Amino acid sequence: MEQQQALTLGAPRFCPPNGTYVTAGGVGVTRTSQVLPREIVDETVEALVDDLDERRGVLLASSYEFPGRYARWTVGFSDPPVVLSGRSRDFALTALNARGVVMLAMFEDALRGASAVAALDAVRGADGDLARLVGRVAEPSGAVMAEEDRSKEPSLLSVVRCISDVESPFCCPGLYGALGYDLMFQFEPIEPTLERNAAQRDVVLYVPDEILVVDRRENAAWRVNYDFSWTVAGATNILETKDLPRGGEAKPYGSGTPAQDRDVEPGGFAKLTERAKEEFKCGNLFEVVLSQKWAVKSPAPPSSLFRSLRERNPSPYGFLMNLRGEDAGDAPAWLRGYAKGEYLVGASPEMFVRVERVDGRLRVETCPISGTIERGADALEDALQVRALLGSKKDESELTMCTDVDRNDKSRICEQGSVEVIGRRQIEMYSKLIHTVDHVEGYLREGFDALDAFLCHTWAVTVTGAPKAWAARFIETHERSARAWYGGAVGHVAFDGSLNTGLTLRTIHIADGVASVRAGATLLYDSDADAEEAETELKASAMINVLRDAGATGASGEAYKPPPAVAALGDGDAFDATTAGAGKRVLLVDHEDSFVHTLANYLRQTGADVQVSRFGAAALAAIDGAAWDLVVLSPGPGRPSDFDLSKTLDACAATATPVFGVCLGLQGIVEHFGGTLGTLPVPVHGKPAQVLSSGGRWKSFDGLPPQFDVARYHSLYADDVPPELRVTATTDQGDRIVVMAIEHADLPITAVQFHPESILTNPRHGLRMLANCLRHLAYDEGDAARAAASEDVAMALD
Q1: Where is region (Disordered) located (predicted)?
Q2: CB–CB of 409/378 below 8 Å?
């Protein structure tokens, strides 16, 4: 058996050799590496920590180990030559010293030739040298597109991609810094409503030319310096950084006084929880992560806070960043930043997205955290707490939904069948908290890179909710202040195509000398409002205690296996699921759902050619413009009428296209043919249930056992099923029998209320059901005539 290339676990691989070479972009590079004596490593790191009180730069430190997931390492620098800053669709690439002036020339040609950059101006200093490149990212194209291509739309990360393209795997290590929550609005069409501080930035990424690396696992350290040379297009002179000073401007830390101690009054978070429950009950949301913020005056410098956090809260994503804005008076407010500077100090427990090349393929991984309980007083109490956490059905539902959405994010751009849950409800222990964590991996399809993977996960369901877009809209209209960096990411975008980022959680954000801490809780219909408020306070306590101790003052298990490619199910009836869709085309209509790409992944495993199109104009144009063997109606929040689902069904009937509906899809089919929906007294989101087939040889249940477990995510249900629809499966939930599947008596139309793609549904059963639809659903001439007649009846009912 061929041995797989060893994973880095985010740690640096080795000290690179000295050398001089030219990159594909025409940049001359001289790299000089220096191995540091072990006895001076710690003092070198601490000197850098002190420097970051006054100098721009970044320190990333992993002080937490977990087999197969995290290793211990440190990477950092101060006085970088170039910084990329951005807000909304505006960006600036600024030289921070004389070396940065040369490096700006390296990037200018690439930015001017990029289709994602709508405008670019060169700003020169008083000496006539290039000081800053100021630009604007192009607006979204507005073109009808497949959902899989959404990450290719212009965004601030398009600028990051341009910069990376100039470099090479052996050039300076990449970009380091922070990416803010508002980047999500460049991926999903969500309108910001909360007031933003004029100094807020969405991206601050430094390009260093000198970097300190410590591999704690190997007990080795080194420093790498880079010099560059560059010939400007159309010129004969060579620009080079050799012999130019590496320094930068120092600005001491200063404290400030907050306007208020917190943005949500005591008891207010519990009220927000009750408000969220109204959305769960009507099916608009399955879960949502709301947060609140505390603020204090912090006389202690950031370096002191970082050292205290590092000692008290070892974590895989510790960080200290000096993100000071520009001092130029002609710069816009967002670029100037905060007058007294800006810092991020954190100890995040959660990976956001990590990408590295393994055996020639790009592997993407994430570790969703959901399920939290306080540490015990000793190991015995810890064991009792772990047992309670693992026994909590509410916490299991939370993590189930998070992982289902995360798998969906990956399925958008990963190879079919490659998205796997390789760790399920595993325990991670931190200083005050115990978490349950899943570990998910996938391999990117050709044509997608680490930045696509990053965008497709913005932002993690563990800081937003599900369905993600609807949860983000709820957050924007119900939280009391803008999140800024919270819920975003910190880390490293490397020029070799890899990426390592952690979620910006357990973080102290210092702006104008005021330190703020934000913490959230995952809310479900089962949530106890007071307990959720207490959970946010518990999560914030580690940061707040660090600040208080520094003198701050206020304003007054075992791996879960993924679905196999071959399903052998039922009473000995086995077939190869990878052949059922061979040569067939499937259109998956997206109703703003957070599981649609996982569904697409399953469909692709049958061998089908699958396209995802969002409901409305894009889906209708796709149905009318091409021949499809199957249209799949995705789940979604709200009601079928929110998506004019009946119009989609009319289009399928007009083109004689078979239909399979999931969850909302079933509800839309019931209403389309004259049935009615009801609302369950208690919604079931992320909950298991056993379905019972009603007998007969139903198309979608062919070869499946008469009973099996599935995942339910719904509050609406089919209350009155019209006579032309046959009920093919139900579940008994105690107070009533609920319809779980239907099939049209004459037409190739079938649907299920449950989620065949969820990890709570046996993956073999879910894959078999989709393969059945592709194998059995098809129109004949008589069906086409009946479809036209049914369309007339449906229009009359409307």
Answers
A1: 243-265
A2: no
pLDDT of residue 541: 84
Asked if residue 545 is part of any domain, the answer here is: yes
Residue 129 lies in a domain: yes
Q: How far apart are CA 734 and CA 732, in angstroms?
A: 6
Would you say 590 and 614 are in contact if contact means Cβ atoms under 8 Å apart? yes
Does residue 452 share a domain with residue 307? yes
Query: Do 363 and 423 have their domain in common?
Result: yes
What are the residues facing 137 on neighbouring strands?
Answer: 117
Residue 663 bears catalytic tag: yes
Q: Is the pLDDT of residue 564 over 70?
A: no
* Long-range contacts of the stretch 263-269 (C-beta < 8 A, 24+): 263/292, 263/293, 263/295, 263/479, 263/480, 263/481, 264/292, 264/293, 264/480, 267/533, 268/292, 269/521, 269/529, 269/532, 269/533, 269/536
Task: Tell whether 276 and 418 lie within a shared domain.
Answer: yes
72-76, 200-204, 217-221, 382-386: the lowest-pLDDT one: 217-221
* C-beta atoms surrounding 747 within 10 Å: 23
- pLDDT > 50? residue 561: no
Is 757 among the catalytic positions?
yes
Q: Which two three-digit tokens encode residue 643? A: 């998506």
Q: Examine the domain organization and report whether 106 and 142 are in the same domain.
A: yes
Q: Looking at 162, 402, 456, 663, which residue is catalytic? A: 663
Per residue in 283-318, pLDDT (tens digit) is 999 999 999 999 988 889 999 999 999 999 999 999
Judged against a pLDDT cut of 70, whether residue 594 lies above it is answered with yes
Nearest to 509 by CA among 291, 254, 298: 298
pLDDT of residue 421: 97
From 517, 490, 513, 507, select the one nearest 180 (Cα to Cα).
Answer: 490
Which residues on adjacent β-strands are paired with residue 690?
709
In this structure, the answer to whether residues 387 and 490 fall within a common structural domain is yes
Domain that holds residue 609: 573-797
- What CATH number has the domain bearing residue 630? 3.40.50.880
Rounded CA separation 249/770 (Å): 61
Final residue belonging to a domain, choices 549, 565, 582? 549
Give 490's Cβ-side CA count (13 Å radius): 33
Over pLDDT 90: what percentage of the chain? 73
CATH number of 149's domain: 3.60.120.10
Asked whether residue 561 is assigned to any structural domain, the reply reads no
Task: Give 457-515 as a 3 state SS string.
Answer: CCCCCCCCEECHHHHHHHHHHHCCCCCCCCCCEEEEEECCCCEEEEECCCEEEEECCEE
Confidence band of 683 (pLDDT split at 50, 70, 90)? very high
- CA–centroid distance for 782 within its chain: 47
Q: Are residues 267 and 353 in the same domain?
A: yes
The answer on 582 and 470 residing in a single domain is: no
Residues 542 and 636 grouped into a single domain: no
Q: Which of 441, 755, 765, 791 is catalytic?
A: 755
Among the ranges 218-227, 572-581, 742-751, which has the highest mean pLDDT value? 742-751
This prediction's pTM: 0.88
| Catalytic-role residue among 287, 479, 592, 757 | 757
Is residue 755 annotated as a catalytic residue, yes or no?
yes
The predicted pLDDT at position 27 comes to 78
Pick 378 or 393 by higher pLDDT.
393
Q: Rounded to an integer, what distance in angstroms lies between the CA atom of residue 75 and that of residue 60?
A: 5
What one-character DSSP code corresponds to residue 40?
Answer: G
CA distance to 279, 368, 528, 685, 711, per residue, from 394 (Å): 18, 16, 10, 10, 14
Q: How far apart are CA 365 and CA 443, in angstroms?
A: 9
Final residue in a domain of this structure, among 517, 549, 581:
549
Report d(CA 706, CA 697) in Å as an integer. Answer: 11
Assess contact for 551 and 304: CB atoms under 8 A.
Answer: no
Is the pLDDT at 225 greater than 90, yes or no? yes
Give me the DSSP letters along 540-594. HHHHHHHHHHTT-B----PPPPPPPSSEEETTTEEE-TTTTTTT-EEEEEE-S-S
Find the largest Cα–Cα distance for the chain. 84
Q: Is residue 104 part of a domain?
A: yes
